[in-house]
Design goal:
By secondary structure, the chain is mainly alpha-helical. It has a single domain (17-22, 29-172), classed as Four Helix Bundle (Hemerythrin (Met), subunit A) (Up-down Bundle), CATH 1.20.120. Helices cover 53% and strands 6% of the residues. It contains 7 helices and 3 strands; from the N terminus they run ααααβααββα. The chain has helices at 19-22, 30-40, 42-45, 63-85, 97-102, 111-130, 150-172, and strands at residues 91-92, 140-143, 146-149. The chain has a 3-stranded mixed beta sheet.
Amino acid sequence: MPLDLIARPEPDEYAAPYEAYVSKVPESNVLEALESNLDELALLASIPESQAGHRYAPGKWSLRELMGHLVDGERIFAYRALRFSRKDTTNLPSFDEDDFVAASAFDQCRLEDLLEEFRLARQGNLRMFRNMAPEMLELRGTANHNAMSVRALACVMAGHLRHHLGVVKERYL
């Protein structure tokens, strides 16, 4: 039977820097937040392609690059959740989001295509979480020397998107 609830993580399930993302998820069911994120993408979908290269300041990401970063983050957080849910005790490496964006071709993509790529990744990740046994959500692993539970990663994924949508509202629009 597919999982239909991921409870909010306790503060001891993630490192302090992730509180900025976890705090953006007030829902008691993190699965609902992950699903509603797909509707929240309407903000970025409403931006015309002619404005997708906009940067709010020199050296800052374009809207396409920001969307590409969200795709990268989705994949990396989900990969960590997969590894932790499989009882992998390897300390997974960190990633530098600025280096990832600099090495990408996001500004050569259409914003619409990056949005679709995120949607597809999120839909696959929702299926992954739903297919986990409840006890798998409690498992913990380590990334960048920070311990984190699988359910905390699910919450971080939802909050990460909301954090960046807030930046879009504040600085780009």
